[in-house]
Amino acid sequence: MALFKNNADTPMAKQRSGAPAPPGQVNIIGQGTVIEGGLKANSDVRISGKVIGNMNVDGKTVVTPEGMVEGEIRSSHADIAGRVEGEVFVQDRLVLKNSAVVNGDIHTSKLVIEDGATFTGTCNMGDALPKPGGKTPGGKASSAPGSEDRNDAKRSDRPAASQA
């Protein structure tokens, strides 16, 4: 029967194989929906529910005021109006809307923070985003370059405690 035919030329088979999504496609995680586990998309994603896990989006990620992500977000572009607990990596432009609450480090080329948004973490801006696993393309750790050296230098500048 054709219903159960496994043909590699079918549209579903092409989508599963990692082929580009149709233009304008938006994947929606609706209010009341909870996704546990990693999420990978070849097109835009709109989250009004909750995602517990890491996200990798080749497109724009939108977290609505009702939405929440507990995990790492990697995206081409992103608008966050909801809550994010985890690191955010955006290749181009990240917008934190006035209702956004982000608890985690941000790595992006461009950042817009609207009045009222809350952000707790560090922000690294530039062209080279860290790859998964915490390494930048140059092999450096994803924390601020030289931060360990600066802290060590501050400690060594202090006078040694006198021994009595």
Task: Give me a quick take on this structure.
This protein has 164 residues and is mainly β. It has helices spanning 11-16, 147-157; strands at residues 26-29, 34-36, 39-41, 44-47, 50-52, 55-63, 68-70, 73-80, 83-85, 88-96, 101-103, 106-113, 118-120, 123-125.
Structure write-up:
This protein is mostly beta strands. It has a domain at 24-125. Helices cover 10% and strands 40% of the residues. The chain contains two helices and 14 strands, in the order αββββββββββββββα. Strands 1, 3, 4, 6, 8, 10, 12 and 14 form an eight-stranded parallel sheet that branches. A six-stranded parallel sheet has the order 2-5-7-9-11-13, with no helix packed on it. The longest helix has 11 residues, at 147-157. The model is unreliable at 4-17 and 135-164 (pLDDT under 50).
**Major beta sheet summary:** 8 strands, parallel
First-last Cα distance: 91 Å
Beta-strand residue percentage = 35-45%
- Helix fraction, binned, reads 10-25%
Q: Give the helices and strands as they follow along the chain.
A: HEEEEEEEEEEEEEEH
* Uncertain residue ranges: 4-17, 135-164
Gyration radius over CA? 20 Å
- Globally, the shape reads globular
Total number of β-strand segments? 14
What value does the average pLDDT take?
78
The helix/strand class is: mainly beta
Topology:
Blueprint: H1 11-16, E1 26-29, E2 34-36, E3 39-41, E4 44-47, E5 50-52, E6 55-63, E7 68-70, E8 73-80, E9 83-85, E10 88-96, E11 101-103, E12 106-113, E13 118-120, E14 123-125, H2 147-157
Parallel strand pairs: 1-4, 2-5, 3-6, 4-6, 5-7, 6-8, 7-9, 8-10, 9-11, 10-12, 11-13, 12-14
